[in-house]
Amino acid sequence: MIPDYIRQALDLARQGAGRNSPNPAVGALFERDGVVVGQGFHTYAGQKHAEIVALEEAGEAARGATLYISLEPCCHQGRTGPCVDALIAAGVRRVVAAMEDPNPRVAGQGFARLRAAGIEVSLAPEYAAEAESINEPFVHFMRTGRPLVFVKSAVTLDGKIAAPDDNRGWITSEAARAHVQLLRHNADAILTGIGTVLADDCRLTDRTGLERSRPLLRIVMDSQLRIPMQSRMVMSARSDLVVATTSAASPERRRALESAGVTVWTLDGPGGRVNLRGVVERLGQESRLSLMIEAGSRVNWTALESGVADKIFFYYAPKILGGLQSIPVAGGPGRRSRKDAILLRNLKLHQITAEEFAVEAWVMKD
């Protein structure tokens, strides 16, 4: 059986999950005479790109070797020098990549530099979709300048997220909640509404215990700055909590929050509410690649209706709440006719337990 070196490079890239942002996750290995002589993956804290880690492991064996890599090597100066220069200097014979880098500063120029130096370059298009999925937030950010925004929710089979009277207990299982923690780990930021904070006194932290490139940025939409100073969100703030508010909020409350280590953004939106699109734009300016929305019915609807949400990730439990007063996953005015429904595409099903599943899909936009 012929070794699948590109597959191995993709598996290496996955090892950087949560540890690479705002850079892409990249895996690389050098093969010479049928033997892997060096391999590596990128972590932001380690600075060195995957190619350089693999080069250092390969040493002189990299001369005349083939590099298999999940993403086109970079050709620009960032925190580190261009990887193509190191590959050329090492005498690499051939480069096989799963996909071109969507970063406009690269975008095929890395391949061009390698070819100009006499190095054979080829793409493995059969792996392009998988390679892109590994770096979905990075690819989206490079193409749009905005973080990838996805709405996560735990729902009953009839689409409810809360009962009208008593919400003690969980909708989904412990296994589903552990899966959610992995989503949080791979996100750069997480957002909720003040209603959720007041009802649940949540923290919205990454509890996987896995290494991250930077802390998960927690964001609360709070137009009147009602968040309690003794809430678990505020009490746990360590330069990782933003409260997005409006100009109508109390200056005294703002000062108190800032004194407690909370960052306050003033982003006025329609109807005296926080401008969610403004939050997303602000995150883009900070090179946050992804935003997970884990909120209540109203915020979910705002994200979907405004076109801010790019994806959904809904966990379904084998339960039915029923009733007209149970809270739906997306509230607000809704769409008034079936033909105007918000449409989804590229739907994927994830089996969570024998009786629970999750639906992942892209939101169709005009």
Topology:
Blueprint: H1 5-14, E1 27-32, E2 35-41, H2 50-58, E3 66-69, H3 83-90, E4 94-97, H4 109-116, E5 120-123, H5 128-134, H6 136-144, E6 148-156, E7 160-162, H7 174-186, E8 189-193, H8 194-200, E9 217-221, H9 232-235, E10 241-245, H10 251-259, E11 263-266, H11 276-285, E12 290-293, H12 297-305, E13 311-317, E14 327-328, E15 344-351, E16 357-363
Parallel strand pairs: 3-4, 4-5, 6-12, 6-13, 8-9, 8-12, 9-10, 10-11
Antiparallel strand pairs: 1-2, 1-3, 7-14, 13-16, 15-16
Structural class: alpha/beta
Shape: elongated
Stretches with pLDDT under 50, minimum 5 residues = none
Content of β-strand = 15-25%
Question: Percentage of helical residues?
Answer: 25-40%
Strand order of the largest sheet: 11-10-9-8-12-6-13-16-15
Order of helices and strands: HEEHEHEHEHHEEHEHEHEHEHEHEEEE
Outline of this structure?
The protein has helices spanning about 5-15, 50-60, 85-90, 110-115, 130-135, 135-145, 175-185, 195-200, 230-235, 250-260, 275-285, 295-305; strands at about 25-30, 35-40, 65-70, 95, 120-125, 150-155, 160, 190-195, 215-220, 240-245, 265, 290-295, 310-315, 325-330, 345-350, 355-365. By secondary structure, it is of the alpha/beta class. Helix 3 (about 85-90) packs parallel to helix 4 (about 110-115).
